[in-house]
Write a structure and sequence with these properties.
The complex is a heterotrimer of chains A (about 240), B (about 950) and C (about 325). By secondary structure, chain B is of the alpha/beta class. In chain B, about 25% of the residues lie in helices and about 15% in strands. In chain B, a hairpin with a 4-residue loop joins strand 13 and strand 14. Chain B is globular and about 85 Å long. The two termini of chain B are about 30 Å apart. Helix content of chain C is about 65%, strand content about 5%. Chain C has a two-stranded antiparallel sheet. Classes of the chains: A alpha+beta (about 240), B alpha/beta (about 950), C mainly alpha (about 325). At the B-C interface, helix 25 of B face loops of C.
Chain lengths: ~240, ~950, ~325
Amino acid sequence: MSQLALVIDLNVCVGCSACVTSCKEWNTSGPAGFMSDDNPYGKDPTGTFFNRVQTYEVGCFPNTETIHFPKSCLHCEDAPCVPVCPTGASYKREEDGIVLVDYDKCIGCKYCSWACPYGAREFDEHQKVMKKCTLCVDRIYDQSLPESERKPACVLSCPTSARLFGDVEDPESEVSVAIREEGGYQLMPEWGTKPSNHYLPRRKTRLHIHEDELVRADNPLKKEERQPSAPVDEPTLDDSTSW
Amino acid sequence: MNYSPESEQLDNSHRIEVKNTTCYMCACRCGIRVTLRDGEVRYIQGNPDHPLNQGVICAKGASGIMKQYSPARLTKPLLRKQGADRGDAQFEEISWDKAFGIMEERLSHLRETDPKKFALFTGRDQMQALTGLFAKQFGTPNYAAHGGFCSVNMATGMIYTIGGSFWEFGGPDLDRSKLFVMIGTAEDHHSNPMKMALSKFKRNGGRFISINPVRTGYSAIADEWIPIKPGTDGALILSLIRELIAQGLYDRDFLVQYSNSAQLINTDEASDEHGLFIRTESDKEPGCFDPMNELWWDRHTDKAVKTHTEEADPFLLGEFKLEDGTPVKPAFQLLKEQVEGYTPEWAADVTGIPADTIRRLAHEMGITARDEKIELPISWTDAWGKEHDTITGNPVAFHSMRGTAAHSNGFQTIRALAILMSILGTIDRPGGFRHKAPFPRPIPPCAKTPKGPEGVKPNTPLGGMPLGWPADPDDLFVDENQQPVRIDKAFSWEFPLSAHGLMHNVITNAWRGDPYSIDTLMIFMANMAWNSSMNTTEVRKMLNDKDENGEYKIPFIIVADAFQSEMTAYGDLILPDTTYLERHDVMSMLDRPISEYDGPVDSVRIPVLPPKGECKPFQEVLIEMGSRLKLPAFVKEGGERKFRDYPDFIVNYETEPGSGIGFLAGWRGKGGEKFMKGEPNPNQWKMYEKNNCVYQYHLPKSYQYMRNWNMGYLRWAQDHRLTRYAEPINIHIYSEVLQKFRLAAQGKYPGKQPPQHLRKRIEEHFNPLPFYSEPLESQLTDKHKYPLNALTQRPMAMYHSWDSQNAWLRQIHAHNYMHVHPSLGAKHGFGDGDWIWVESMHGKVRCMARFSEAVEPGTIWTWNAVGKASGAWNLDGDANEARKGFLLNHLIAEELPAHESGEHISNSDPITGQAGWYDVRVRVYRANDDEPKETWPQFDTMPAVPGTGKRRSWQGFFAGMFDKEAK
Amino acid sequence: MHPAFSVIFLTTLIGVGQGLFLALFTGQSYAAAKFLPAQNGTDFFALGSLIALLFLMAGLVSSIFHLGHPERAWRAATKWRTSWLSREVIALPMVMFFVFVYGVMHYMSWDVVIFVTSTGVEFNLSLLVGALGSAAVFILFLCTAMIYAAIKFLQEWSSPLTIVNYILLGAASGFTLATAFSIYTAPDLVDFFGAWAIIITVMAFISRVASLIRNARIKYKSSIQTAIGVRHNNIAQKAQGAMGGSYNTREYFHGKTAVFLKSIKWVFMLLVFPLPIILLFAGMEHSNGKVLLFAFMIQYLGLLAERWFFFAQANHPQNIYYQTV
């Protein structure tokens, strides 16, 4: 059994949206055909994307955290979008756990999207089928690509390498180690969907200064103290007594 | 369908091509690999073999497809229709022959009569070596790129201090740093490398502090965010310097050896040499370097000795008397005195940062620098011949950009930053700041403009560089009345060190005829009728303004651009440029290469697609015009054309006949066996093409650090003609250059003297040591009426105004909000998402408020240049960008209100001419309910110009089918 | 959720059809038990079945507008093991089949007595078909309702009340229509159907009000904290990554004000329950077919509003991710 998934590191994501458009450019010309855009040059432009980056603010000034939050299909282990599909177009692959839509079987009833608590699916208004992240299934097994590039487009593009990709069922994989060691968590655990994608939280590096570090033997100011020898011609004890 | 990788390969394999080139969706210049299917772009990915981005790409880079196929692309040369006004965007198509004919006739006449009547100003181009060469050859001083309104303070403030700067010139060594402090940077130049480095740095356990009024972008992932009031960074930095000195947390050894800290300065106020270094005889021929003939006061012998005397250990503090009775102090003593009043408590009031935080920040920097010291086992020899077994590093790194630069006090702020970095001992050392070739440069760099109007002569190349680095008042480019020779008044007494010019004042100056009128203004890829101009509404009127004879005040405007920007509406002649995927380009060592810390790197673009329509790369326009005008560099002795085209020019042009120096550094010499210097190589392009379009040279390890003082490196740089002199470049803690201008203002310096009304301004601002002053605009504003600061930031997914025509990127940023702290809404009675007015003393805009807890409450901000004029960039008239998006520029004036320094003084740094974008003060109030729910001001909808594409109501891009479907 | 009119019409129209068929079968059952006089097969049962069938077909046609690819609709029957939608796709034609056969049997008088009780009550084959058809009707009600009730994180829907409401509201509208229908075809049965229509409408009122009360008290399990996995009391979304909107903003938000939503609630509470009951009384009292027909039309109109509200009120947890443009 294996379960491919993304692990998204919120500790380094700067919200650049590289993953958003890399995904779109790879998939719009992919085997399943274009991802449409409506009003591309007009009012309220809108289109089909598999992945979006959102922004949240946590806390109040000045203790505010700005969190950039990429979201795509989480490829749930217990994906609620699969059993509800009346045609079997929405399916989860046995071999690697990727949740896919067979666009030739999809009747466009949108029921699967209703059954996803994460809003991960998007209906293509011009192909009239439901679409979603495929983990770039057309890249990751493509033997004609160098092995280092057999990754989802979003992962390849990410400038901060905030997107890790691998098998979360393999305890030694990079993603499993990251989840285990960096506090990886799942979204909306309350629904028992067991999302395969995990998120890594913000981690803080702090510096604690001890007073000893401020009072220093090597303080360079000591070298600046000018101690000229006292002048020879000023009065001394010798001038007033002979003992 | 079922996914099987084979299925795609089967139907694709015979129609796929893969080509490497360099991205240009922003100024970052990442290597990209472009996959084409049936001649259409299928995939643009980061080139994994490219040193700059190592395979990654950003949102813009990955949306290059939508730029390539944008309906906003200009595809035909256009001439303004007879009878149509500028701004109406009424054009007729013409041929290139006709376009060249019009330009040739006009420009040859100007060159024969008065070359300065031709002005060439360019935007975010990456060919300043060529555009600058063209201007110089033409003989006009009126040339600059956009640096004056971008970040010239960052360049000058640091280069006049450490001989290098951030971004292309150098940066933080995050591989080895332990503490990284970012000041005034949201997401900026060199963005992908910075993102990569930040993530690696954080994962290695580094501590990242961001100082910024706003927490977005990089600041979001900082371990600590320190909100600061805009324009007060200098106060903070000076206070940090004070605390570091008071605590003795500075790197004394570094300062003694590698800076002018210990050098003695004449403190006799009565002397004409007041504030200058005491110098002894030098046995060196004078040149563009520091002869190192200053004095130290030796601790051991308690007397003055020549700087860098063996065995001497100078005092950094104290006051002394020379044998002739001259009172002197070391520069560091003057620095200490200068910052004495900048206590953390004082700075807390100015910056809004608690004094304890400032103190802690200083301690974190100082203790990390001293206790986390790095010793690399790399031996090297310093410029004085001393051998070192190791390279030392103090792992505190900084990065800063427009947030500190775009203020009228930015130069001194950034000089303070460079000094902070220097006293921590972090310059060109591991874990600190690292230079990138061809930096470091001498302080100041050697390039100079002509010194007067005699440098501008008909039919003659300019008698100097159009832009340069003045070392003293005599280097100013002024006439006998001390008036500017350049149209933008650069290198005049108003902005003496304006190394990048003042593009933001060109239109206003030309319109007013101050200092003179020009005839032809050529603008390349700069949106001067919108986001690149301050005071946008008025500038648009000036572009269209006529004199009493009905003639345009700026008689002829040529606009070269790839897209139907707002500026194109104001052109008389429009030249359609190509996209970056359709042209040759070079990222040259003569301009701003993509060098890495460990050695020089330059790169090229090679077309992956043919030009669309009649698009022509602007470089080809310049080569053609240079040949037609018979500019010496572009023609043979007999006057016939020398270069077939731009690629031919790149290969065969040499800076001087036989110099062996050309635009590209890699694979020079007949067979490509040389680099930096060597004969032209006819196969140079091929070699770049084979090597990912990039040439990289790794310096030997021992040349990679301490390059200001590294004998090995300096000689290497001299041998490879990066520099003329292999002399050490000591850090200017104390700037004698600035002091010379100050002395001139005081009437003490021989030579050029400032006009009376500017003396006080020069004397105040040309302080040889950094000081804090409130930004000029703030000083001249009623701050009770306009209490807030207003800023813009560039979003990561947009490059200034470029990307609203990009169908994918505009879905991410379709319009912009004014981000305000909720307390402002509570105070002025508006809610999140409400329409508000934002007003400065220059103008007002109506926009939508977005509440944010991630902004300093006295600051409001918005994304830059998302707002568009209706119809521009070939968007529908009711596009969100025009109806909900807005431009902050309407609130910002290009000139200061009349004050004691004059009437039409640019709203810029008085030292460098850097545009003071972030100095504007504003107030906010709720828009009435009966007002239209759209932004104000609005402009008439710009029609689509001939040759632009059809706007589809919907589209589904599929490489190989898209354009066919359109036909 | 964004209420889709195709689905509103689908569920309300087939509800009427199903309810009407239940009424016909109830009438026949009562008649067989001699509680009611027997009716003419052609006029009453056949025509009634035809009308029920027309409603069911109209619902089916309406559903087609909901599909992106109706030409592939046949595929929807394949996943009946897991999908309530698939089960509905099977159950709906099944109901239509029984209604059709039931109607044809009555029309053609193809009927035989298959069983006689000791008390002399005759069980016809048509009664058996009617019983099977009624079972199918209940299965269809269950399937339709379970499409919504089975989505556990749509907490407004995920309740047995959803099933009860679908059955009762469909039955109420069917019996109201049967009352109006019977005044023209079987005047003897008007009071019988009218009484049942009123009883079922009252029951529907009770269960719908119960669900309204329940939904007003829902404690949502998902929050912005669980959605992004950050524990803090003060979290606000600042950008959703798509300023011009997206499928997520179109499909899951009704886009109307809270006031509008509330007024729709009062509209349907009035149109579905008290008004039809008053009109039914009045129609029966005066034997006025037009008033009875009006009662049905009013109730159906109310059901459209009820169904709109049913969708609009449902709060999808994905909306947490789409709070701010």
